[in-house]
Fold this sequence. Notes:
The complex is a heterodimer of chains A (298) and B (328). With 298 residues, chain A is mainly alpha-helical. Chain A contains 14 helices and 2 strands; from the N terminus they run ααββαααααααααααα. The two termini of chain A are 46 Å apart. Chain B has a single domain, classed as MetI-like (MetI-like fold, Orthogonal Bundle). Chain B has helices at residues 12-42, 65-72, 82-114, 117-128, 139-147, 176-182, 186-196, 201-209, 214-225, 227-242, 246-251, 260-274, 285-288, 293-319. At the A-B interface, helix 2, helix 4, helix 5, helix 6 and helix 7 of A face helix 1, helix 3, helix 4, helix 5 and helix 8 of B.
Amino acid sequence: MKKKLTKDEIKGRGFKYIGRTAWLWTIPGILIYIIFRWYPVLLSFVVSLQKYQILGKSTFIGLLNFNNLISDPMFFIVFRNTLYYTALSLALVFLPPIFVSILLMEMRRSVIAIMMILWFIPVGSIASVVLWKWFYNTQYGLLNGILVSLGLPTSGWLNDARLTMFCLVLPGLIMYGPGLIYIASIQSIPEEMYEAAELEGAGFWQKIWHITLPRLRPIIAMLLILAIIGNMQMFNQAYIMTGGGPHDVTRTVVMYIYRMAFQRFKFGYATALAVVLFFVLFVLIYLQRKYFKENPDI
Amino acid sequence: MPLIAKVGRKKWKVKFLFIGITIFLWLGVVIHLFPVWWIFSSSLKGNVEIFAFPPTFFPHTPYWGVYKLLIKGASKLLPYPLWIYIKNSVILVVGVILLQVPLSAIIAYTLSKLHRPRWSRILFLFFVGTMFVPSEVSLIPSYLILQNFPFPSRSIPNIPFTNTTFPHINFLNTYWAVILPSMVNAFNVLLFKGYFDTIPNEIINAARLDGSSEIGILRRIILPMSKPIFAVVGYFTFTGIWGSFLWPLIVLNKPDLWPISVTIYKAQETIARLGISARPSSGEIEEIGFLGWNGIMALSVMESIPVIIGFLIFREYLMKGIKLRGFK
């Protein structure tokens, strides 16, 4: 590997890219990504065009699966539910940690150190879901218990179709937010910027709007994409807490995929649904990238 | 206190704002910590106290019978002792971290420092582009190929000119079914690359001048510099796998293979099936072997403790200042 370096390379002007070693080191990664990612992705397009049979021969049936999807009333219901959940969750779960982190920096240093642990301490993901299922229980749950002891009428919580989706989002708001990441980058904003803004007469909210938020923008943009992808694939909360009910108002796309594939064994149909989800996600991410740029040229 | 104006801090309006923020933040802390406390306290309650109304905030006397019963595996809640499920989760997490984190790091390093820019950009799309096809979207094919890997169905073609079929492996109901697909993680590649991009090329050039081999550079220079990003990626990977639910639910069908997340779900399903009519009015838990929500909460504690420890370690590293970069 020892080789004479040219003058340019020594001065760092022409950095030497070592093609051979690079490829040698990348090949395992390429193979694994092909086998476990790109191959299933391509396969999902193939299977979505098939009447797939796990035992016998699968036959190509063209776009029949997609045709059936469009005439399936549940298709629209699950997408409506999923989009509704995503919107609700972005508003109530994604946004609050950003503002909490910003406000947290107003506290004294010693208070910040304690508070950022207390605010963002997590519990296990399934633990949080089952805990809230217990809280929501209409007969012996804590929430109705509190309502009763206050002399208030009890609520149906998860059984109340108007409330259910909100009930699924609420644990995310209360239990956990990825606030630490925001705090790390707020701390890197130089104090002088705020002082300069103050001299120009910027108030409390103006400083948030003109200094803090623009500085957080790259991270918000990245986490927003992850949040959209994650929320559009919501499964755990609905599957565990409501099972899709009442009256299918919490049945999500991934739940329907799961049911069609692993309970009804209609793999082709379920895969077609997944392909539609992929395109919907693609459009959402495209819109996000277009209208929420990481570094807008101000 | 960067937001609140330095001048005029004594004005009542400014004071009011500060007090308002303080109250809001502490209120949030209380609301957040209450459910966390509830999980811990409920796991220490006996079968009578767990249903007491109004519920007790502190358990009367901490009752360890719930844990004893789960550890012994004698409860009706779970078919196996608790440690089996914890062991499963640990195996999955360790397996994924050992295989996926180094893989992501090496991919990111070659993209950032070794490949020519043109190839780097193409490969970047190849690797990070997978992020836009989330695993749930290709859930079914990923499942199908694991059964007779690498063939997506039970009808396996013969090797040409012979009567024997191509070799194939069934990964379903093995830990590999979770570990192998988890080796692909575009987000981690992105995080690593963002970090490696900030390491100046001159450092690598200087090391090459000193006659260091490429592996030596990686081991002696890059790795020691990259501890924070390894901590971050390790934490994300750990929480992701420890809390994963849908995929293990599909590919691990035997109760002795369930990770702790699936176990909690199955246990609470058992309770829902039995209903509250099965609520025992008296009797020591350890004798009758029946656990209710106290058992579920004890399992939840088991799921939560590693997550909390991970969070505290992660916080230390994060505060040392890592650079999370965007997509470019």
